[in-house]
Specification:
The chain is α+β, with helices and mostly antiparallel strands and 324 residues long. 27% of the residues lie in helices and 27% in strands. 25% of the residues are buried. Bound molecules: 1,4-dihydronicotinamide adenine dinucleotide and magnesium ion. 1,4-dihydronicotinamide adenine dinucleotide binds next to strand 12, strand 14, strand 15, strand 16 and helix 7.
Amino acid sequence: MSVYCGIACRRKSFWCYRLLSTYVTKTRYLFELKEDDDACKQAQQTGAFYLFHSLAPLLQTSAHRYLAPRHSLLELKGLLGKFGQDAQRIEDSVLIGCSEQHEAWFALDLGELERDWHFPVSCSRYKAQALLHWHHTHQFCSRSGQPTKKNMAGSKRVCPSNNIIYYPQVAPVVITLVSDGTRCLLVRQSSFPKGMYSALAGFCDIGESLEETVRREVAEEVGLEVESLQYSASQHWPFPNSSLMIACHATVKPGQTEIHVNLRELEAAAWFSHDEVATALRRKGPYTEQQNETFPFWLPPKLAIAHQLIKEWVEKQTRSSLPA
Ligand SMILES: NC(=O)C1=CN([C@@H]2O[C@H](COP(=O)(O)OP(=O)(O)OC[C@H]3O[C@@H](n4cnc5c(N)ncnc54)[C@H](O)[C@@H]3O)[C@@H](O)[C@H]2O)C=CC1
Ligand SMILES: [Mg+2]
């Protein structure tokens, strides 16, 4: 069992830790790197760099798997020289985490960041792509129009002319699986891949609580009134800009299940039975093979929180239908 103790003291501007768990010391170390440019620069000396090109991760194959190669600062300088880029580019790198031994990890994009998103394969890659993308799209101060300057870790940008600080933005989004007790409501937008249905989602308006957003989005998109709400889980979602997906289960008022689809927002919405959804969850294989008469719809992949939400609902329904 880890012993948690709040003893930490500042010595020569570095944190020193005693009796703190590995997780806490790691978190405090990352905090220090975000706050202290010199400490962050120092961490680059022994850190590892992951490279991207226009947000596409640089990968190499090893035993039929794709792996993201790590580069030391020295190797990175060599690579930059090879690509005809200045070593100054290292200043564009952003801190994305560290190991338990406090080896700091950085991400650097060597391209122009003009291309589309590439699906990340790990959580730290999610963070790297979202952060690199945010820096690329927040180069100027919206008040003065002057170029902003990132701190060493890339946790913020500052306008040198008026000291306005810009922090990476995350937009809260609710994703709700609405149920009428026996069926669940799935929707599709015209931008979804053909045949894919998902849970209903929507951005929080300014000033709203999550409960108010769920109520409004369900009413806006399918014309139903939510009666009860239960939080499930959350997920960072980097597409197209960073969102925090907050996943909930909701039920509609009894007897009020008639859907009125808002065609400005959705292409279709329908109630699906437990068996239909459970079958769709069990399906495997490439999505293109799934779109035929006997295969009317498919669900988002496992990495999307929508999938987890739908799976949770199916499991709950299965449990409640079993004899006591
Ligand atoms: N991880 C997952 O499982 C899922 C993630 N999503 C994500 O949820 C997000 C929201 O879902 P939608 O149904 O599209 O939202 P939505 O129902 O709020 O409609 C999108 C519209 O909201 C407006 N809007 C308000 N605030 C916005 C902001 N901060 N950024 C962008 N647009 C804003 C725009 O007019 C936009 O066209 C999408 O970005 C989508 O990628 C959606 C479903 C599943
Ligand atoms: Mg929506």
